[in-house]
Design goal:
The structure holds two protein chains of two kinds. Chain A is α/β, with parallel strands linked by helices. Chain A contains 14 helices and 24 strands. In chain A, helix 1 crosses helix 6, helix 2 packs across helix 3 and helix 5 packs across helix 6. The radius of gyration of chain A is 22 Å and the shape is globular. The model of chain B has no long low-confidence stretch (mean pLDDT 85). Classes of the chains: A alpha/beta, B mainly alpha. Chains A and B meet through helix 7, helix 8 and helix 13 of A and helix 3 of B.
């Protein structure tokens, strides 16, 4: 069975139950299924289709419809520049994908270059079952999705909800926090949501009391995608004493692997819990986390070399450093790569540098991280301007980059430097800047 | 003429949100959730006031002048 079979079953079993709510509109499971079936009839069979994430009901309908038409969905960032979208579509044309492929999700991922991760229908079902078992998703739940649906973190929440016939409430980000709290008022017996650590920090700073007033409504909150600072974990436990609070280990390549309810009276720092039913964790002799089981990707699209580097013998080898404690719980200790984690979005500095170097006024540059009170890290570009760059501003460079990169890859800060340090063989000396 | 509070807010935001066009006629639409949170936190800290999510309305965040008005209403 694929996820859409469960969607059809939910429409039969609970036709009048609200499936999806977004921007004042809602569809019951019966209506959602009818819309999906109707749209799938207009699609050619078995196509690979790119679609920008419009973060609304239309996106979700198209996503399911592509699968029903036997196709592969390639959801992209909402603000993907058209040039990027075209080149991705062109690169996928005529690609032969493994049997049972559902999606290609683009991510900076574990090795640090934007790559298409091949996700199978089997993976989607395994992720759904892991979440239902690991976090107690239930039929009477309304889950508020506030993150981008083209990323595994938010997209994977749709899976258990559809399987159980529960309600998904889609929000376009957390910019309007009032809308978020209104979503928590949705008349369902239980509500739950997912936050990246940056959003938790933001809510604790700006809306602590308001969030605390939902202590008896919030069934659970999940966090993931970046390390959650221990003081924030403790404050959240204090604020929501009866809510299950999960810290999850997951990535596009590995799927949803392990989760830990840190509101267990111990609130273990850096702990990500035990592997879920479909997953196994092995720590390599180098101390790196590797994962096995049905939630793993099938490989990187059109990149056998990178695939072989990460996925071998049914195991995904990550760049995350960690260990299993004496209770079999996973702990994350660091990351062995140049990737910068900006509030849960992973950015390869080399991709930013490459885009900036394409600008005629940029003579040399390096993309580094800078501490940020909300996201933990933000991107900063150190730039050596060319000789005739007088009067040229960082803002001009930023808008140049915005046309070429997704928004979260555009550095927030810019600083002019006389030169960029390089190693003896001419490579950027990243270590020098990681002070 | 800009008053002192407006000038202070301008320079604070230029430093913390270098990519946002502060003189935009529609400042709120220029911001993402991070931008909104940054403004609330920076202003709370600088002026010793308590701003929260409910203050982050499109009206309050429409321009430097409206931000200055928000700060003034909270300091009174």
């Amino acid at each position: 069975m694929i996820l859409e079979d469960y969607l059809r079953l939910s429409a039969q079993k609970h036709p009048g139950k609200t499936a999806i709510v977004c921007a004042g509109k809602s569809l019951s499971y019966k209506e959602l299924w009818e819309r999906v079936e109707e749209r799938s009839r207009h699609l050619h069979k078995g196509q690979i289709l790119t679609l920008k994430n419009s973060q609304d009901i239309e996106f979700v309908v198209s996503y399911f419809a592509i699968h029903i038409a036997g196709g592969v969905a390639v959801p992209l960032e909402k603000d993907t520049p058209d040039t990027v979208l075209k080149s991705i579509s062109a690169s996928l044309e005529g690609t032969i994908l493994p049997q049972g492929t559902a999606d290609i999700l683009f991510t900076t991922g574990t090795t640090g270059k934007s790559k298409g991760v091949i996700i199978s229908h089997k993976t989607i079902i395994a992720d759904a079952e892991n979440l239902i078992h690991g976090q107690g998703f239930s039929h009477d739940l309304a889950f508020v999705i506030n993150g981008p649906l083209n990323h595994i973190g938010s997209l994977s929440k749709i899976y258990p909800l559809v399987m159980l016939g529960a309600t998904m409430i889609i929000l376009d980000g957390m910019k309007d926090m009032e809308k978020f709290f209104q979503a928590l008022d949705y008349p369902a017996p239980k509500v739950a949501t997912f936050f990246v650590p940056a959003t938790i920090r933001m809510l604790l700073q700006l809306s602590k009391d308001r969030l605390g007033s939902y202590a008896d409504r919030l069934d659970f909150i999940e966090s993931g995608a970046a390390p959650l600072p221990h003081p924030d974990m403790l404050r959240l436990c204090e604020l929501l004493p009866r809510t299950r609070l999960y810290n999850t280990y997951a990535s596009t390549e590995t799927g949803i692997i392990a989760t830990y309810n840190f509101n267990d009276g111990r609130c273990k720092s850096g702990c990500l819990g035990r592997p879920m039913p479909h997953s196994r964790i092995v720590i390599t002799p180098e101390g790196l986390i590797s994962c096995q089981g049905d939630t793993l990707m099938s490989g990187y699209v059109n990149d056998p070399e990178q695939t072989a580097a990460v996925l071998r013998e049914g195991t995904v080898f990550t760049s995350d450093l960690g260990y299993l404690d004496d209770e079999g719980m996973l702990h994350l200790t660091g990351r062995q790569s140049d990737v910068i984690n900006v509030g849960g979005f992973k950015v390869a500095p080399s991709e930013v540098e490459e885009a900036a170097m394409a600008h005629p006024m940029v003579k040399d540059c390096i993309c580094v991280d800078k501490d940020h009170p909300i996201t933990g890290k933000a991107l900063m570009l150190l730039v050596v301007w060319g000789a005739d760059a007088a009067g040229f501003s960082a803002r001009d460079l930023a808008s140049f980059l915005k046309e070429r990169l997704e928004g979260y890859k555009v550095p927030l800060f810019y600083e002019e430097v006389p030169e960029i340090k390089r190693t003896y063989n001419g490579k950027l000396d990243r270590k020098f800047y990681q002070r | 003429m800009e008053n002192k509070i407006q000038q202070k807010i301008s320079s604070l935001l230029e430093e913390n949100l270098p990519l946002v066009d502060l003189n935009s006629e529609f400042l709120f639409t220029e911001l993402d959730s991070l931008g909104v949170a940054t403004i609330l936190m920076v202003l709370s800290e600088e002026f010793g006031i308590s701003l929260e999510a409910a203050d982050a309305t499109p009206k309050n965040l429409s321009s430097i002048a409206s931000l200055a008005a928000l700060v003034e209403s909270k300091t009174k």
